[in-house]
């Protein structure tokens, strides 16, 4: 039986308290939210923090709110809460699509949105979803708060821009007219990490794509996004041919690797097909039921 190494434990009662503890312990500390990724890594000794700072008592970080033209999600929001949020589903169907295929009910009931993002797994579903929606991450630190785009948040596998004395506190998603979104995923079994997955968001003016966002995960996409395919779509009519070509461009700019989930050429195929499917779903939703 594998067990983690001995570790000290601190329970934060507020964001300010958590920041104080992070400043005190520095790189020796890790933040504990849901723990579904961190604890297994500690058991395998892949992560060996000296101190765990438990932030589950900071209820101020658990919310899904509509503020003006923004959907705001606190980082301690559980996956199940985001899946159940009518506000989130109304404005960003991609969130419900993605949450339905993340793990299982036990994980979704306790795992957190912020924990998933900060784990920075290169196969993370929500990282692709937020990249597609061009979200903004709010990070608090000793010098106040700062904001970075979802596409600048991850600096590499299991690495983010969050510093040792900082805490991710919120995700902001802009709500714009004419929008629609969707998420498509292929995995080896229900609830597993994706072999490949794609999220798409489009904003239509009439039948023209005014803007598009494409997020990809598990297929070696830079910054979890397909910027070249997005650029191709801007200003084009939302035809099936244009969406399919965008899928091809997305795949051409991915760099998947062969691993236990599948060969690289199959993942490239998934990048193309899933991007096209996600775009079709997003366009259909943007047009509405009368389209």
Short key terms for the protein model shown above:
single chain; 291 residues; alpha+beta; Uridine Diphospho-n-acetylenolpyruvylglucosamine Reductase, domain 2; Uridine Diphospho-n-acetylenolpyruvylglucosamine Reductase, domain 3; Enolase-like, domain 1; 3 domains; 12 helices; globular
Structure description:
- The structure is a single chain.
- By secondary structure, the chain is of the alpha+beta class.
- It has three domains: 8-54, Uridine Diphospho-n-acetylenolpyruvylglucosamine Reductase, domain 2 (2-Layer Sandwich); 61-174, Uridine Diphospho-n-acetylenolpyruvylglucosamine Reductase, domain 3 (2-Layer Sandwich), CATH 3.30.465; 179-287, CO dehydrogenase flavoprotein, C-terminal domain (Enolase-like, domain 1).
- The chain has twelve helices and 13 strands.
- It has helices spanning 15-25, 38-43, 79-84, 86-91, 93-100, 105-110, 113-119, 125-132, 150-153, 227-233, 240-252, 264-287, and strands at residues 8-11, 29-32, 51-54, 64-67, 70-74, 136-141, 144-149, 154-156, 159-160, 167-174, 179-187, 194-205, 208-217.
- A five-stranded antiparallel β-sheet has the order 4-5-10-6-7. A three-stranded parallel β-sheet has the order 1-3-2, covered by helices on one side. Strands 11-12-13 form a three-stranded antiparallel β-sheet.
- Helix 10 runs antiparallel to helix 11 and helix 11 (240-252) runs antiparallel to helix 12 (264-287).
